[in-house]
Amino acid sequence: MSIGDTLLFYENLKATATKKSHKKLYSRFVKIFRNLKARNFDKTEIQKIASKIQILQLQSEGMEASFHRKKLSEFTKFLNKEFSLVTEGHYTSMGIIYGMLFGVSLGLPIGTAFGSYGTSMGLSMGIAMGMAIGVAFGAAKDAQAKKENRVLS
Predict the structure, then answer these.
(1) Which residues are CB-neighbours of 57 under 8 A, at least 6 positions away?
(2) How many helices (H) and strands (E) does the chain have?
(3) CA pair distance 153, 110, nearest whole angstrom
(4) In this predicted model, what pLDDT tens digit does every residue of 41-53 receive, in sequence order?
(5) Is the backbone of residue 115 left (phi > 0), alpha (psi -120 to 50) or beta?
(6) Residue 63: pLDDT over 80
(7) How many Å apart are CA 107 and CA 113, to the nearest integer?
(8) CA angle in degrees (0–180, nearest 5) for 92-93-95
(9) Which of 5, 120, 126, 149 is most buried per CB count within 10 Å?
(10) CB of 137 closer than 8 Å to CB of 102
(11) How far is Cα 47 from Cα 53, in angstroms, rounded to an integer?
(12) Among candidate residues 66, 39, 50, 71, the one with its CA nearest the CA of residue 6
């Protein structure tokens, strides 16, 4: 199973899909495989990708979109782990998540210092500030990854 064969498979799935969500899912696969095809990998790296495609059974006919959604997640994790490749907005998404966690952990103690109404105010302000910091940090990391040509766009 080569990258080109899998690309054709997902282009065909995208062309025959009727639901908008399915087309979007298959488009993400097409973007990733086009980007992988355009990159200069050596033979061993290409073999790693091909074996992962085969292990994940990406070209399985008649599978539901939920199957492909799970496989997309597994495949992007594999690309991140093996080749340090990330999807667009990866670090921004992670920054939002960690920012919210950080914001709650800071907002709760600050809010409780101001009484019962302060708790909700502290939580909401903490989450908002944490998200803002997370987005800024994530965007900076995404820009760095793009400079290093590690983004699958």
Answers:
(1) 71
(2) 6, 2
(3) 41
(4) 999 999 999 999 9
(5) left
(6) no
(7) 10
(8) 60
(9) 126
(10) no
(11) 10
(12) 50
- Per-residue pLDDT tens over the stretch 116-142: 777 888 888 999 999 999 999 999 999
Residue 24 amino acid letter = K
Q: How many CA atoms lie within 13 A of 23 on its CB side?
A: 6
Look up residue 107 and give its two tokens: 């907002």
Q: What is the CA radius of gyration of the chain?
A: 20
**Amino acid occupying residue 151:** V
- Show the tokens assigned to 51: 């074996």
Residue with tokens 């488009």: 27
Cβ(90)–Cβ(134) below 8 Å:
no
- Tokens in use for 96? 């939002």
Residue 135 structure tokens: 């987005």
Query: Where do the DSSP E strands lie in the chain?
Result: 86-87, 151-152
Q: Decide if 59 contacts 53 (C-beta within 8 A).
A: yes
